Structure formats: C-alpha cells, structure tokens
Amino acid sequence: MSDTARKKPFVLGLTGSIGMGKSATAAMFAARFVPVHDADAAVHALYGPGGAAAEAIGAAFPGTLAPDGGVDRTRLREAVLGRPDRLATLEGLVHPLVRAAGHAFLERHAAAPLVLLDVPLLYETGGETRCDAVLVVTAPPAVQRARVLARPGMTEAAFEAIRAKQMPDAEKRARADYVIDTSLGFAAAEAEVARIVARISDQAGHR
After folding, report:
1. Do 173 and 179 contact (CB within 8 A), yes or no?
2. Distance CA 76, CA 205 (A)
3. Using an 8 Å Cβ cutoff, are 130 and 12 in contact?
4. Cα–Cα distance, 128 to 10 (Å, whole number)
5. Using one digit for the tens of pLDDT, what is the confidence trace for 66-93?
6. Could you tell me the pTM of the whole model?
7. How far, CA to CA in Å, does 73 sit from each of 14, 43, 44, 62, 159?
8. Reduced to 3 states, what is the DSSP secondary structure of residue 189?
9. pLDDT (tens digit, 9 = 90+) per residue, 109-136?
C-alpha cells in the first residue's frame, strides 16, 4: 500500500472461501458502527424481481426465472454447474453490476473513517485494488466442509464446484493484510475485529 495521502474512508476488504465465516465477521464490524457493503446482498437484490440482472439472466439462461420475475437460484446453479463457459457468461453479466453497487456504497459513505467491503470473490475479481487493506477469514477444511454441507440444498457436487472457482484458502491468507481464524470461536474473532478496527483507526488518524 502507498504511504501517500488518501481520501477517506479507509476501505477494508473482507473475503474468504465459502463457509469461512464472512457474514458473522462482517456483523462484528457493523456492531462497531463500521458501514458494511455486502456483495451477496447486492447480488440478491440484482437477482430479485425487477432486479437489474434478472432480465439479462433470464435471456441468457432460459428457464431460470421464477414466476415473480426474479432468478430461481437453484435452477441457475444447475444451468452453470460444471459448465465454465456458462459460468463465465453469468459472471460477465453480474460482476459489473456488483461493482457498480460497491461504488455507489462508497459514495454514500465518503465521510466515514472506515468502511468494509464484504466480497466473497474479492481476489478472484481483482477487487482488492479498491481496498486499502484486506482481511481474510479462514477455518480448517473439515470445519469449512461441515458448515457448507449443513446449508439447505447444498450438495457435495455444488460445494466442490464452488471451491473450484475460488482461490485456494492458503493463497488468500498469504496475500492478506489481516487473517482471522473463525474456528476459534466468536469471542476470539470479536477480539481480532476490535484490534483491527483500532489499528486502522490509528493509521487513518495519522495519514
């Protein structure tokens, strides 16, 4: 990161592979009054009835829209599972819209000292270039697998397909500025979040 002066806010990216505890960790930042942009929530809105991505997805993947006009995510998952070409098409439709939502969030919170971008595919989409630092959440493989397979509708095949398109956990950890092991429990994670917020606040106060 450059030592040159930056405009506020300090942008912290939060990422990690599926099942690593991003949502719980983001909530800990929100509890400390840090504005949080949830990329998954942005996608949910884009996929919903009248969402900016729904019509385009329906045209590109016939049969994937629900009766209300929103995207049926189960049908969409089935349409792209094991098909890299279809997945690339989907990402080409959705990622620019997600980035635009992120930019709008930053504009709304331009006066905040610290904001958090919760983005599952942060490194995979080059999103770290928008961040001043990156926090990666992690957990042992067995913990990750148990968490993910406990989700309604999740299968081994779907889990492996998702993991295949995500950067390996070890590489994310190696590239991160901060790492939190969420398998150590909520108290340990909350203590780490407090430490990170304090450190960034101190850095922001001196830049």
Report:
1. yes
2. 46
3. no
4. 13
5. 999 999 999 998 999 889 999 999 989 9
6. 0.82
7. 24, 11, 10, 13, 15
8. helix
9. 999 999 999 998 899 889 899 999 999 9
